[in-house]
Write a structure and sequence with these properties.
The complex is a heterodimer of chains A (582) and B (100). By secondary structure, chain A is of the alpha/beta class. Chain A is 41% helix and 24% strand. Chain B has three helices and five strands, in the order E-E-H-E-H-E-E-H. Chain B has a five-stranded mixed β-sheet. Classes of the chains: A alpha/beta (582), B alpha+beta (100).
Chain lengths: 582, 100
């Protein structure tokens, strides 16, 4: 009981943890300890693997030895089959941690004569349990006995006795059974094993298979009641109880660069939020993957790990293509910072994709996860399913503070804002790439459709793929509207020419004005010198005239004096003073 | 273990029992009656108690108790149950490969 973890504190029922990813969460701690659990499902749905993993994990993680009684496969077959999941049964058997026993009855050789019981089975199980001190036991497809042994009535009562006996022994038991029509098992075993019934299902929808698990019944314990997708891969069994996740993840205020300086500027100068969900959508060939690659390169440069799921291109093709725009991702992949995971979306079902992704993310522990593109999942009318899957993935990533970067291919013609409506509510930062067709050419425009929690640019930028990466250029906004590409270039050139012309005009105007000023000043000089010459001439004449005047007066006075001599002088003196005043 | 030997072993039988349960005792009683009556002198019977020797249960794939195994003559035959239908048991044990 030491290892018993109870998920719900109030639950008094002791549980035996399975350590199967996700299952302990939905069962609230594991299978009922010391009681039988029935695992039923159709052929090939993973019953045996489930049971085997329960045993092996019991040994490796909880040091609880286990007995595997197989009614179908021989010890050799079993060992070989689960070796593919990385379970080394041979070693565990040699260490006496696991007891493998194949029980089979040759139908042809056997006949009934009189009453019998299954004491042989009891003895063998008892012996196995005692030998290794088992705490867990698996009876793999007990129902085979019904076809091997005569007299089902005896079998039924014996099996009932077996379950009670195992319960008394206090070993946690898994009994697997084939699913019957209209009932969980073909022979109604669920009537006897009533503590916990888990149903495994393997169905095909839209040509891809989905494995699901459902806990039909769990006596004395609460449990998740939904159908949970599960996956069997090289690491064994994993169940995905993602719908149980709540919206209570912490949000980071850390910002990470987009790898494109101008785009950072558009997102209030710093880039995306760490742990946010970014969607880049656009029509074919608008450069979604390039934006992703640029983001990847920036992240790797910072030393962050990136997990890149590509659903359209192989990793080598993607790397080759990105080289053409100057983004070399190869060194990062070699360094182990970048991991590609290229699969066709149709390879397996949505749930499997989700479980695989989550497994890979858990193993690789990236800071950034890229899904390129998410449309591949859309087959027919499964929008809600895709949304559910992405919702689960986004929730999971947010909980882990992993930045998610999705690309989405939108079909041209429809309004791009509407094209990804089914996921838009999940997205924190949504970049839209659209092509702008002007003047016989197609150019790319980028704008930020939304970006939660930051002031972002409302401008359309022209998006250019150059030899040295992505470049964002201001579009030409003028009287003719928004221009891009060569239209923008020619318009800009035209503008430049006009500007030059105007500058030249101003220059020449200024020059002629200067010339005029110079001419005017020269004229002024000439006029002044003329005037000066005239002035001096005039002054000279004035001086002469004055002198003449003086001398004339003197002469007149002398003459008067000499002529008359008797005339009073006063008058003349008065006249002279008058003249002087003038 | 309870081994009965005869000079001429034409019929080699093993009876698997688990302790002294009613069915086991009944089977042994029935078998002894048959052998001593019909197959007197030509049979060899081994009674194995799997409680005492559980490994043998695994080796011989014993599940139902009691189980009677006809090791010889071939083909091998298993009869499960307390052998209460003695005539049928005789018929089964007599039955051999030549008549196949």
């Amino acid at each position: 009981m030491k290892n018993n973890k109870t998920y719900f504190k109030r639950s008094p029922l002791p549980k035996s943890p399975t350590s199967i990813q996700g299952l302990d969460e939905i069962t609230g701690g594991g299978l009922p300890k010391g009681r039988p659990t029935l695992i039923c499902g159709g052929a090939g749905c993973g019953k045996t693997l489930f049971a085997m993993e329960f045993l092996v994990r019991g040994v490796t993680e909880f040091n609880e030895p286990g007995v595997f009684i197989s009614f179908e496969e021989s010890e050799k077959e079993l060992t070989a089959n689960v070796a593919s999941l990385g379970f080394d049964l041979k070693k565990l058997v040699a260490q006496k941690k696991i007891w493998l026993e194949h029980i089979h009855v040759e139908r042809d050789e056997t006949e009934q004569n009189g009453e019998y019981d299954l004491e042989g089975l009891f003895v063998r199980i008892h012996y196995a349990i005692e030998t290794i001190g088992a705490k867990r036991i698996v009876l793999d497809t007990l129902e085979t006995l019904f076809s091997e042994l005569p007299n089902p009535q005896i079998l039924r009562s014996e099996l009932k006795r077996l379950f009670n006996w195992l319960k008394k022994k206090g070993v946690t038991t898994i009994i697997t059974a084939e699913r019957g029509e209209g009932s969980f098992t073909r022979n109604g075993l669920e009537e006897y094993v009533s503590d916990c019934v888990i149903l495994l299902d393997h169905r095909v929808s839209e040509q891809s298979s989905i494995r699901r698990l459902r806990i039909v019944k769990y006596r004395g314990s609460t449990h998740g009641t939904n159908e949970y997708p599960f996956l069997i891969d090289e690491d064994g069994f994993s169940v995905l109880p993602v719908t149980s996740l709540g919206l209570n993840h912490d949000s980071s205020i850390e910002r990470i660069s987009t790898g494109i300086p101008r785009l950072d500027t558009m997102l209030s100068g710093k880039g995306y939020f760490r742990g946010s969900t970014v969607l880049v959508s656009g029509t074919a060939g608008t450069g979604k993957t390039s934006i992703a690659a640029q983001f990847v390169e920036a992240a790797c440069n910072r030393g962050e790990k990136v997990l890149y799921f590509t659903f359209e291109e192989s990793s080598s093709q993607l790397m080759r293509n990105m080289k053409s725009i100057g983004i070399n991702l190869e060194p990062w992949e070699k360094k182990g910072l970048l991991q590609f995971h290229a699969t066709r979306p149709t390879l397996y079902g949505l749930e499997s994709h989700l479980t695989t992704s989550i497994k890979l993310i858990n193993n690789f522990k990236p800071a950034i996860v890229i899904l390129d593109p998410i449309n591949g999942f859309m087959i027919g009318e499964n929008e809600t399913e895709v949304k559910n899957m992405l919702l689960r993935l986004v929730d999971f990533l947010k909980m882990k503070h992993i930045t998610a970067f999705f690309t989405s291919l939108t079909t041209s013609g429809e309004n791009p804002e509407n094209s990804d409506v089914y996921v838009s509510s999940l997205i924190d930062t949504w970049l839209l790439l659209r092509d702008i067709e002007i003047g016989g050419e197609r150019n790319r425009g980028l704008y930020v459709l939304k970006s939660r929690g930051m002031s972002h640019s409302n401008q359309i930028r022209e998006f250019r793929l150059t030899n040295t990466g992505i470049e964002l250029v201001d579009v030409y906004v003028g009287v003719d509207g928004v221009l891009t590409g060569s239209a923008r270039l020619s318009r800009e050139m035209q503008d430049d020419a006009e500007k030059l012309l105007r500058q030249q005009e101003i220059g020449s105007k200024q020059f002629s004005l200067e010339r005029k000023r110079e001419a005017m000043e020269a004229q002024i000089i000439v006029l002044r010198s003329e005037f000066e010459a005239e002035e001096s001439e005039s002054l000279k004449i004035i001086g002469i005239e004055k002198a003449r005047n003086e001398s004339f007066k003197k002469v007149k006075a002398e003459m008067a004096k000499s002529r008359r001599g008797d005339a009073p002088l006063k008058k003349t003196i008065a006249k002279r003073t008058k003249y002087k005043r003038k | 273990m309870n081994i009965k030997k005869t000079r001429n072993n034409k019929l080699v039988l093993s009876l698997y029992v688990a302790g002294k349960t009613i069915k086991s005792i009944a089977a042994l009683k029935n078998l002894n009656f048959i052998c001593n009556g019909v197959f007197k002198g030509i049979y060899k019977l081994e009674v194995i108690d799997i409680l005492k020797n559980p490994k043998l249960a695994r080796i011989n794939q014993i599940l139902a108790i009691p189980t009677l195994i006809r090791n010889l003559p071939l083909p091998r035959k298993n009869i499960i149950g307390d052998l209460s239908n003695r005539e049928l048991v005789i018929a089964k044990l007599k039955y051999n490969e030549n008549s196949l």
